[in-house]
Specification:
It comes from Mycolicibacterium goodii (Mycobacterium goodii). The chain has 13 helices and 14 strands. The protein is globular, with a radius of gyration of 21 Å. With 388 residues, it is α/β, with parallel strands linked by helices. Helix 2 packs antiparallel against helix 11. The strands form three sheets. Strands 3, 4, 5, 6, 7, 10, 11, 12, 13 and 14 form a ten-stranded mixed β-sheet that branches. Strand 6 and strand 7 form a beta hairpin. The protein has two domains: 173 residues, D-Maltodextrin-Binding Protein, domain 2; 141 residues, Periplasmic binding protein-like II (D-Maltodextrin-Binding Protein, domain 2).
Length: 388
């Protein structure tokens, strides 16, 4: 059946009740978890230790729950294995200072983190307690039985679009259309995505891994908002990016934009652009200007089945969702926050036209592969060797 679901980003009142998507709730197949808490996909990892932690903190709330989880985590050695994407140093430092626990961190791209956690799971040598990566990768991990069951009060503090498949989204990347204003002054900047691709600025850079941005641009902007067919939208974007250059990595993309290599980038992250704006670099973003809405693309986190310190993984997850802990730091880092308990300012406040993109909830594995292929076809039409 179809359920109409309203989604609101914390700190973005204009979105409350203003955005909705149709969530297709599909019939579920057999559970990948056998009796006894072991996965039916092989590997000896079970979540019995995690279930024991849940039993220890049942009925506890607030500080009492956190203190008990920290105590249990210290009894398990005091070290928490965290695999994550992005630069999470401020969060690691604050968590260690506030809890006395130590993070054993491993940073990488989402696909690599999922592969590493999967290999460890299958050999019963799990090194992570918590994995933070692309929501679509965590959904795949859950389907393979790699994730532990998530039971946390934090689930009650987020809207439906930010949880599912034993995972919860602690923040959203805010993807914006950005310019080098020395090359594309304000009076020359397109006022809509249609204008951008029909009359592209001279010199654009596009990041090579952003198939989810492409899917959402086609489906949620051009098709849902503008009434185009999928092929019409793809043709428009393809023609507009024919003279663009591919770039591997968002950090490099923004650096090249600031240096004057490009006049515009359609898929930059606000958390990369904002520090340059504050440093008076010649970059700007037009997400709140005209009809060029930003896309809020969530990353998600989940406990790993058979993690060495399940209490540590759980207290880290709940700390990342707490308004006085991780949520405030995510906001300071120019990410969109997801907990409804966080009421402070965020970078999302200025974007009344933002599009929440959570298609990972409804995309099938075939959908994912299909859009990955379509994005590669777009990049092939651009041609050339990516800057890296």
């Amino acid at each position: 059946m179809e359920t109409e679901m309203k989604i609101r980003m914390a700190g973005l009142p204009a979105l409350a009740g203003g955005l909705s998507i149709a969530l297709l709730v599909a019939a579920c197949g057999p559970s990948p978890i056998e009796s006894g808490g072991k996965s039916a996909f092989g590997g000896g990892a079970s979540d019995e230790a995690l279930q024991a932690v849940y039993a220890q903190v049942e009925g506890l709330t607030g500080t009492a729950r956190t203190d008990r989880l920290v105590q249990l985590a210290k009894e398990d050695g005091g070290q928490v294995g965290w695999y994550y994407v992005g630069k999470m140093d401020p969060l690691v430092k604050a968590f260690e200072e506030q809890t006395g626990l130590k993070i054993s961190g491993y940073q990488g791209v989402s696909e690599d983190l999922a592969e590493r956690a999967g290999q460890e799971f299958r050999t019963n040598q799990q090194g992570s307690d918590l994995v933070l990566g692309a929501a679509v990768d965590l959904r795949t991990m859950d389907g393979e039985g790699i994730l532990g069951e998530l039971k946390s009060p934090a689930l009650d503090d987020v809207d439906e679009g930010f949880k599912g498949y034993n995972a919860i989204a602690p923040y959203a990347n805010v993807m914006v259309l950005s310019y080098n204003k020395d090359l594309v002054p304000p009076d020359k900047q397109p006022t809509s995505y249609e204008d951008l691709f029909r009359n592209p600025p001279s010199g654009m850079g596009v990041e090579t891994g952003d198939w989810q941005w492409y899917e959402n641009l086609v489906r949620k902007y051009f098709m849902e908002q503008k009434g185009m067919s999928e092929q019409q939208a793809i043709d428009l974007i393809t023609n507009g990016l024919r003279s663009a250059q591919q770039v591997e990595g968002h950090s490099l993309l923004v650096e090249l934009l600031a240096s004057g290599q490009y006049g515009a980038t359609p898929n930059s992250f606000a958390h990369s652009i904002e520090p340059l704006v504050k440093a008076q670099s010649p970059v700007t973003y037009a997400a709140s200007k005209g009809d060029t809405p930003p896309f809020l693309l969530t990353n998600a986190m989940a406990l790993t089945r058979g993690g060495p310190n399940p209490a540590g993984g759980l207290v880290l997850l709940e700390w990342l969702m707490s308004p006085d802990g991780g949520q405030k730091i995510f906001a300071d880092m120019n990410y969109g926050t997801t907990s409804n308990k966080y009421t402070g300012p965020t970078v999302v406040d200025q974007y009344s036209n933002a599009i929440v993109a959570d298609l990972y909830l409804t995309d099938t594995p075939d959908d994912v592969r299909n859009w990955q292929v379509k994005y590669q076809e777009l990049l092939q039409s651009i041609g050339g060797r990516p800057a890296s």
